[in-house]
Design a protein that fits this description.
The complex is a heterotrimer.
Chain A lengths: L2 E9 L5 E10 L4 E6 L5 H8 L7 E6 L9 H9 L1 E4 L11 H6 L8 H9 L5 H9 L15 H15 L3 E5 L7 H18 L2 E6 L2 H7 L2 E6 L2 E7 L5 H7 L12
Parallel strand pairs in A: 3-7, 3-8, 5-6, 6-7
Antiparallel strand pairs in A: 1-2, 1-4, 8-9
Chain B lengths: L17 H21 L10 H12 L8 H36 L5 H4 L5 H20 L2 H12 L3 H26 L3 H8 L4 H35 L6 H11 L3 H29 L1
Helix pairs in contact in B: 3-7, 3-9, 3-10, 3-11, 5-7, 6-7, 7-9, 8-9, 9-10, 9-11, 10-11
Chain C lengths: L2 H33 L9 H13 L7 H36 L5 H16 L2 H12 L3 H25 L4 H7 L5 H35 L7 H10 L3 H33 L1
Helix pairs in contact in C: 3-6, 3-8, 3-10, 4-6, 5-6, 6-8, 7-8, 8-10, 9-10
Classes of the chains: A alpha/beta, B mainly alpha, C mainly alpha.
């Protein structure tokens, strides 16, 4: 799914300007990393792309149409092909991993299938396969509150993999994982994108991961785009300026 | 752990909770069916024409509620009677509950502390007191009211005694719990140095627990007002007896008035009890 | 604050306390006077001898097999009334919880709050008399009455639980294209389920007590048997019923206490 962001600004309810006149275009199948200091507006941007927030000014068009002007049914359909990996997965703690993953396809399933799967999971192979890719297959039937932070994040990723969306939005998807695991997870997300020509936008705090895996980097500072370049053109100076507010060296995963 | 069911030809993984859930569902259904039969659950009765007529006529009379002057005076009198029944009942209950609670509570037990020949005896007394408490509060107040109406006739006496009996059981249980959970060191110290049980209570436990005891008692008084209305249905006086009479005559207007007065009374009692409990802090 | 002021403050406080106690005592005395009740005269001579004879007849309960079977049936009927009513009320309250928590706007919330308050303010016994009018004598009236009252209680409790629960999981599912019902079942319900179950079981315990007495107005269960026997002046049979009621209440109390202790252990 391609989309275009045109002069989008977002103001929080308390008046704080999260984003100021952002514009960029994305073609279907691209892999983009969004980097920036904490509080620069990365999460807000992803929320706007996921249609969970509405731009205060400006326009975001998904495949050419404005999600805020279409019917409820069309919006629901659009949302079912957008998958979000949250930094802190919003999964009820008592829920089992298999159910949490199955929830990814609720947008596509009829109601009866959703209800039955709650009691007896109708598809266990699918979730298992997704977990296997993230090396968590042995926890298929465990409760989510028995998982560590990193494991829970992987369940969140598995849910999006199961959903098989056309637009994958990942908000700091590996923040609780060690370097080896984060490499694995990012690789899976990128593979998913290339195999199905799905667009992948990931906001990352660790610069080395972004540079290693993503061909295009967008740097955000104080709610504005600092740079929008291919990874090879990103210089150390640009990164230093981006993270000027953060103390010490650039943030990396390893 | 996932088990690959290659043998059954399916490429699925067996849900370890599946058999438990299935059993649960089957057992629930097996229990549900006889329950529905036993309780004569026939929801279509609600829409039976004759029944609808009866209840419809009754409910229509609710608006407007009966505001006949003579009737309103009767209702006022019944309300005051209900208040009096609740207050008198709780007062009597306190009279019984205090000694009962003192006997039961462990923190005032002399025999527990040190040597003494009557350890078994006091245990027996405590046990019988607990048993008595159980009987008093285990039997609902309306049952007591029904029995007492046979002895004392219709009217508020039966109601007062019914509440006194049940609530003495409830109050003594909670009193003993409050006394046991408070700071028991002062009273223990007094008992060890030879003071009597009552003195130990008054000087050792009462100061620290008085507020909680009073607070719970006032709360119980509030419940007693509701209970007095309920006991009235078996003839123990007050608003309840009035409502029972009006219902038996299918007089919707009167019932509607009484219900409204009841709500106001409960609201008033709620606020009053909150006020008094605030004063006590 | 100077010592004098401190003492004066304590005195003032004391006066308030004493005044309250005085008013309460006066109120209590007034109650007795108004009712014409002298607690020391209650057991006057003729009521005394009557009551002793009356009470005496209760001490030989009828333990014949057919009657015990009737009582057994009554116990099952009482348990069924309470269980069914609590179950129905829980299901209804699940539906009431959504508007009660404001999911359908402020008007729906106020309306639902009002309905719940009304349902639970009317005492169960009054509901039972009304239900007897609606569906006739028998346990069905009792079930309906308890269902209505309990729906008011649980509706409010469920609504509060839902209101205090985080909407994040639900919202995330909606933004992945899920329908509202499915999002509720997968996102919100697993989180609130333990609390709702706890409330429901607690209410069931109280409803068992209630179901035993609804029979007094003809709504089935042990209460109806008791009322019947007392009306026919068959005290031995009545005392058996009372013992059964007591045994039921004690059993339920003990079991629920044990379960509560176990649950606390499990939650660790």
């Amino acid at each position: 799914m391609g989309f275009s962001v045109q002069n989008v600004s977002f103001k929080h309810a308390n008046g704080a300007n999260a984003l100021k006149s952002i514009s960029f275009e994305v073609k279907s199948g691209e892999c983009i990393a969004i980097i920036g200091a904490s509080g620069s507006g990365k999460t807000t941007l992803l929320n706007l792309l996921a249609t969970s927030l509405k731009p205060t000014t400006g326009l975001i068009e998904h495949d050419g149409f404005n999600p805020w002007l279409v019917s409820k049914k069309a919006l629901k359909k659009l949302r079912s092909i957008i998958g979000t990996v949250h930094q802190s997965p919003p999964i009820p703690s008592q829920q089992r991993v298999v159910t949490a993953i199955l929830a990814g396809r609720l947008g596509k399933w009829p109601l009866w299938k959703s209800v039955v799967s709650l009691i007896y999971p109708m598809d266990t192979l699918g979730p298992y396969t997704c977990l296997e890719r993230l090396q968590l297959a042995d926890r298929l039937f465990d409760r989510c509150d028995s998982l560590s932070g990193g494991q829970l994040q992987r369940v969140g990723v598995a849910r999006v993999l199961y959903q098989a969306p056309q637009l994958i939005l990942a908000d700091e998807p590996v923040s609780a994982m060690d370097p080896v695991l984060s490499d694995l997870v990012i690789r899976e997300l990128v593979d998913e994108s290339t195999s199905r020509n799905a667009t992948l936008i990931a906001s990352l705090h660790a610069v080395d991961i972004a540079l290693r895996w993503f061909p295009r980097i967008i740097g955000i500072k104080n709610g504005e785009i600092a740079f929008d370049l291919s990874a090879v053109h990103v210089t150390e100076n640009m990164l230093k300026e981006l993270y000027a507010s953060e103390t010490g060296s650039l943030p990396t995963q390893s | 752990m996932a088990r690959y069911l290659a043998s059954s030809g399916r490429s699925q993984f067996s849900d370890p909770r599946a058999s438990f859930r299935l059993t649960l569902i089957i057992v629930s259904l097996l229990v549900l069916w006889p329950m529905l039969k036993l309780t004569q659950f026939e929801p279509w009765l609600l829409f039976n024409f004759e029944n609808l007529e009866v209840i419809g006529n009754f409910l229509i009379q609710f608006f407007p509620p009966n505001h006949d002057e003579g009737f309103l005076w009767i209702v006022a009198g019944a309300t005051i009677e209900t208040l009096a029944i609740a207050t008198a009942g709780v007062a009597l209950a306190i009279l019984i509950a205090v000694p009962l609670g003192l006997i039961i509570s462990h923190s005032l037990s002399i025999s527990r502390i040190g040597p003494g020949s009557d350890y078994l005896f006091s245990r027996l007394i405590r046990f019988s007191a607990r048993f008595l408490m159980l009987v008093l509060r285990g039997i609902p107040e309306i049952v007591w009211a029904l029995l007492l109406v046979r002895v004392f006739g219709l009217g508020p006496t039966a109601g007062v005694l019914a509440i006194a009996i049940t609530y003495s059981g409830m109050l003594s249980k909670v009193y003993s719990e409050i006394l046991e959970s408070g700071n028991t060191l002062p009273s223990r110290a007094l008992l060890v140095s030879g003071s009597g049980r009552i003195a130990a209570f008054l000087y050792g436990l009462l100061p620290s627990t008085a507020q909680e005891l009073a607070s719970y008692t006032i709360y119980r008084w509030e419940c007693a007002i509701r209970a007095s209305v309920v006991t009235g249905f078996v003839g123990a006086g007050g608003l309840g007896q009035l409502m029972d009479q009006s219902m038996k005559m299918l007089n919707g207007g009167e019932v509607s008035t009484i219900l409204m007065v009841f709500f106001l009374l409960v609201l008033l009692a709620d606020h009053l009890s909150l006020l008094i409990r605030k004063q006590l802090t | 604050m100077s010592l004098l002021k401190q003492l004066k403050k304590q005195q003032q406080f004391c006066i308030k306390c004493i005044a309250t106690i005085f008013i309460i005592t006066a109120f209590i005395l007034w109650s007795f006077i108004h009712l014409g009740l002298n607690p020391f005269n209650i057991f006057s001579n003729d009521t005394s001898s009557n009551s002793i004879a009356y009470i005496g007849r209760f001490f030989s309960p009828d333990l014949s097999m057919p009657f015990l079977m009737k009582i057994g049936n009554g116990i099952f009927e009482t348990l069924s009334i309470s269980a069914l009513a609590t179950l129905l009320a829980a299901i209804i309250s699940l539906g009431l919880a959504l508007p009660n928590a404001g999911r359908f706007g402020p008007y729906a919330k106020s309306l639902t709050r009002f309905v719940c308050n009304f349902l639970r303010s009317v005492p169960e016994l009054v509901w039972a008399t009304i239900m007897v009018l609606a569906v006739g004598l028998g346990p069905f009236a009792g079930t309906l009455a308890l269902t209505l009252h309990t729906a008011g209680v649980l509706g409010r409790l469920f609504g509060e639980t839902l209101e205090n629960h985080s909407p994040l999981a639900n919202r995330a599912l909606i933004h992945s294209g899920s329908g509202k019902i499915a999002a509720f079942l997968y996102g919100t319900f697993p989180g609130i389920y333990p609390q709702l179950l706890s409330y429901t079981l607690y209410r069931w315990e109280m409803n068992i007590r209630m179901a035993t007495i609804l029979g007094f107005v003809g709504a089935g269960g042990l209460g109806q048997i008791l009322f019947y026997e007392l009306s026919l002046l068959r005290e031995p049979k009545a005392s058996t019923v009372i013992i059964a009621m007591l045994a039921l209440v004690v059993a339920v109390d003990t079991i629920s206490n044990k379960l509560r202790v176990e649950q606390l252990h499990n939650m660790g």
